[in-house]
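Page 42, continued from yesterday. The earlier attempt failed because a stray header line got pasted into the input along with the sequence. Redoing it now with the clean sequence only.
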Amino acid sequence: MPDDRDLLHDPDGGLPRLRAIMARLRDPSLGCPWDLEQDFATIAPYTIEEAYEVADAIERKAWDELRGELGDLLFQSVFHAQMAEEAGHFDLDDVIRAISDKMIARHPHVFGTESREKSAEQQSADWEALKARERGPARVLDGVALGLPALMRAVKLQKRAARVGFDWPSTDEVVAKITEEAAELVEARDTMSKTEVEEEFGDLLFVMANLARHLDVDPEAALRGANAKFTRRFNKIENWLAETGRNPAQSDLAEMDALWNRAKAEEKAAK
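This time it went through. Structure tokens are written below.
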């Protein structure tokens, strides 16, 4: 059997090698001071960041980068499991066993006796029903994680409420509510405190998330796309200004707006 040193440097060591690396990083005598200082709360933001970097690589179809980003995300799970083991809560084997058991239990049409002759929509409904049974008696909105990105959490809260009938019947009512909330935001801007403006802005975003749900649009993905489009077009503005020996600070809004429209027109023509 190889000793720890052999495993640490074995390129084919797989998950046992990664676990050994993590254990060494947290070793009180031999480990890394930074890793030893961390706890669940300090590592959680890195976990979220790594998940977004995975999504970013997928969005850009950067498959070589995705391999590395998935590794970074896997390492986060190993890191949390190592800290949990040290605290006596559970270890990585418990994590793997739990997710394996859950996947088998939630796919009776694959691993059990139920028929696979179901639509994807019916399978999604069955999945949610199984989750509800696992949670047991609970309030409608219980279990929607507080740590989710706000737009994602808004959609999940609204989906839960919709299951018990608390939902608008069509997008018409949602659009009308957006108009109402936008008017309230303008009123708050002119007459209310910053805290009240923030509240009204939050109400408008919440209804926008509801519209996304009714349109079957992922608001996080839509906003990522809008961010990418803005970045792409503004980069073109910078490039065109650079051709004249200038940068955006040396331009003005009218010129940059005209260049923006040029970039927009070029993208539409290329489609």
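Notes: Residues 63-87 form the longest helix (25 residues).
Reminder to self: strip header lines before submitting.
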